[in-house]
Design goal:
- The complex is a heterodimer.
- By secondary structure, chain A is α/β, with parallel strands linked by helices.
- In chain A, the strands form 3 sheets. Chain A has a 7-stranded mixed sheet with strand order 5-4-3-6-7-11-10, with helices on both faces.
- Chain A is built from 9 helices and 11 strands.
- In chain A, strand 6, helix 8 and strand 7 form a beta-alpha-beta unit.
- In chain B, strand 3, helix 4 and strand 4 form a beta-alpha-beta unit.
- In chain B, 29% of the residues lie in helices and 23% in strands.
- In chain B, the strands form 3 sheets. Chain B has a 7-stranded mixed sheet with strand order 5-4-3-6-7-11-10, with helices on both faces. In chain B, strands 1-2 form a two-stranded antiparallel sheet. In chain B, strands 8-9 form a two-stranded antiparallel sheet.
- By secondary structure, chain B is an alpha/beta fold.
- Classes of the chains: A alpha/beta, B alpha/beta.
- At the A-B interface, strand 1, strand 2, helix 8, strand 8 and helix 9 of A face strand 2, helix 1, helix 8, strand 8 and helix 9 of B.
């Protein structure tokens, strides 16, 4: 598992690359000599040569705060809602009436400002791809948009390697999707329209075109993420927001669109691409202009870090 | 930054690479120490490693000049077509192919005798490998997309090509070579993505060569190959790999090349192995070599043999963590 890091230094017509394993690189990076001497020297040598668009500041914009505790149900109404949401495996943390919050795996609430969304979305027609429990759809609706949310009918429709299918079924991984969404929609009195459709099949013939399309934490689970981008382009009139997981270990390679193939062992992740790969793919998918909005670590219960990058891609 | 040359040296835990741009290369090439000492030394090293790695200097791929009237007639026919494969035809005529596999066949590890075996050549193009397996005695099915409109290319380019129109049927070279060789290979217009036992039957040997890099979903192609391979059968995957990524041994990396030059992905050998394992195959590496082709850049190939695993491929090789 020795991931190696590569540092490239360009001096005149020569480029030097020094490669070492990641652990060694980390120790070196933390040493005082590196911080005081080598780093400043490298910065001076490199100058402002980093040409990758949107690469202004790689500092994390969002530090995950502690996940909130569920408040004790104070009222009979709150207790009724808690009974209603019990038994559902919540993916999204969603604020429901009477001070109740779903115990989600991810909590986007404090990170909403990192996605480059318009504050006022009145008059906008918005598509959410793979909505799960619907956090983002309800958010767009709250900002005034008319929202169509698509998702799969069951986990069996996700992109699973073909010869894992029997294990998938026999292991009880085949579960219907959408119960959390239905309950949250009902409790919120939402009008979001949820439709069963895979992004692999998405086209304007289904639900028309949209002012904005939104696709978050989806691409890593797809065997063919580029086709998803192409399909989203086809239904996008103004712009699409792509907020997905990237592989920070590959960020040192600025001129190469590298991607890690992850579908080894029991996982639902196909790819962990560098941000350069996502950026390049969006262009291949025909988006005319792609802006980086932010980078941050997703606030979730996952034991490791989930680094995300958000792109605003114009039709 | 366009690097013309890159040299890599391993020094203990460090790997140091020196890249030089075009101007730099010229200056160094003209310098006395390079011409007098460095170049002879490098040439000597290259000769040593070439024989060990099975590199072949690319020779001429021009067809032999034949004399007879029969040969002239064949030449007139092959001149009408663009050839991807260099094929030996009767009367000493060879097609002027983009790739010439003829001297590199041993790297692929075919059984010497394939009598009684049913073999599949995936994406056969002009049919070099299909005819080779037939020559070894196999009963061969060759599949290919029926038209270039069905190639796995970005939607933008596909719409352009479609707008231009025209006949983009595949298989003319195959048909001519098939006739001239008196071959009995059965060619089916079928994409690897649609390959199933119901459509094509099952096989003892399945060959995928120089295909996966052109596919947006190579994993699905490997899964298709697995689905038609008989228990105890063999999937031969002979694909270009990305030498720049070979240093990352524990991680399955691939480079997205965006199809700018008809290539979607350039994976490391680790990635190819991982993908074959995920498709359900036990993997063994046979050879690495440079493809003999009229390409502007060297094409590094690896040959991997996959055998259908008894259990599904979850026992991983330590590549990737997921999550």
């Amino acid at each position: 598992m020795a991931l190696v890091k590569e540092k490239r230094i360009r001096v005149g017509g020569l480029e030097f690359a020094i490669t070492m394993d990641a652990a060694r690189a980390e120790r070196l990076r933390k040493s005082p000599a590196y911080a005081r001497l080598i780093r400043p020297a490298l910065d001076r040598l490199q100058g402002a040569s980093n040409g990758h668009a949107g690469r202004n500041g790689t500092a994390w914009q969002g530090v995950p705060p502690r996940l909130p505790q569920m408040p004790a149900p104070a009222t009979p109404e709150a207790r009724a809602i808690l009974d209603r949401i019990a038994g559902v495996e919540w993916y999204h943390t969603i604020d429901l009436p009477h001070g109740v919050t779903t115990p989600g795996f991810v909590d986007h609430r404090s990170q909403r400002h990192l996605y480059g969304l318009p504050d006022d979305m009145r008059g906008m027609r918005v598509l959410e791809v793979a909505c799960f429990d619907g956090f983002w759809s309800f958010e767009f609706e709250r900002r005034g948009a008319e929202v169509v949310a698509i998702d799969l009918a069951s986990t069996a429709q996700t992109d699973i390697p073909r010869n894992w299918m029997d294990v998938f079924y026999s292991g009880g991984f085949d579960k219907p999707k959408g119960e959390g969404f239905r309950i949250a929609k009902e409790l919120l009195g939402s009008k979001v329209r949820r439709e069963v459709l895979s992004v692999h099949d998405l086209g304007p013939e289904h639900f028309g075109e949209f002012d904005m399309a939104f696709c978050s934490d989806v691409l890593l689970h797809l065997r063919d993420p580029l086709r998803a981008m192409e399909n989203i382009w086809r239904v996008t009139k103004q712009f699409a927001i792509f907020a997905d997981v990237y592989n920070p270990e590959l960020e040192a390679f600025k001129n190469k669109a590298l991607t890690e193939f992850c579908m080894v062992g029991e996982t639902d992740v196909w790819w962990r691409p560098s941000s350069t790969t996502l950026y390049l793919m969006l262009h291949v998918a025909r988006f005319s202009r792609v802006e980086e909005v932010s980078r941050f670590k997703l606030n979730s219960h996952f034991e490791g870090e989930i680094p995300k990058v958000v792109y605003k891609a114009y039709h | 930054v366009i690097l013309v040359r890159e040299k890599r040296l391993n020094l203990g835990h460090l790997q140091v690479a020196v890249g030089i741009d075009a101007d730099g290369v010229e200056q160094i090439r003209r310098s006395l120490p390079y011409r007098g000492a460095l170049r002879p030394a490098l040439r000597y090293l290259r000769r040593l490693t070439a024989s060990a790695n099975g590199h072949h200097a690319s020779g001429s791929v021009a067809p032999v000049q034949p004399d007879s009237a029969e040969a002239a007639a064949i030449r007139r026919q092959i001149e009408q077509l663009d050839w991807y494969h260099t094929l030996d035809l009767p009367h000493g005529v060879s097609t002027p192919g983009f790739v010439d596999h003829r001297s590199q066949v041993p790297f692929y590890g075919f059984p010497d005798s394939m009598h009684g075996l049913r073999a599949l050549d995936v994406a056969t193009w002009d049919g070099f490998w299909a005819f080779e397996m037939e020559h070894r005695g196999a009963d061969v099915v060759a599949i290919d997309i029926p038209s270039w409109y069905e190639a796995d290319i970005p939607r933008l380019q596909l719409e352009k090509i479609t707008a231009e129109g025209g006949d983009r049927t595949t298989g003319r070279g195959f048909a001519l070579a098939h006739k001239l060789l008196g071959s009995r290979v059965q060619r089916e217009p079928l994409s690897v993505y649609e390959l199933t036992p119901e459509r094509a039957g099952t096989f003892d040997v399945v060959l995928i060569s120089d295909l996966l890099i052109h596919l947006r979903d190579p994993q699905r192609a490997l899964e298709s190959a697995f689905s038609v391979t008989r228990p105890g059968g063999l999937v031969i995957v002979a694909e270009p790999y990305n030498p720049d990524l070979e240093a990352f041994r524990g991680v399955a990396l691939t480079q997205f090349l965006s199809f700018a030059a008809v290539t979607w992905w350039m994976p490391s050998t680790t990635t190819l192995r991982a993908m074959m394992q995920v498709a359900g195959l036990d993997v063994r590496e046979l050879a690495r070599f440079r493809l003999k082709a009229r390409a502007e850049v060297p094409i590094h190939k690896v040959v991997l043999h996959g055998r259908p695993a008894m259990a599904r491929a979850t026992a991983n090789s330590g590549a990737g963590t997921g999550g």
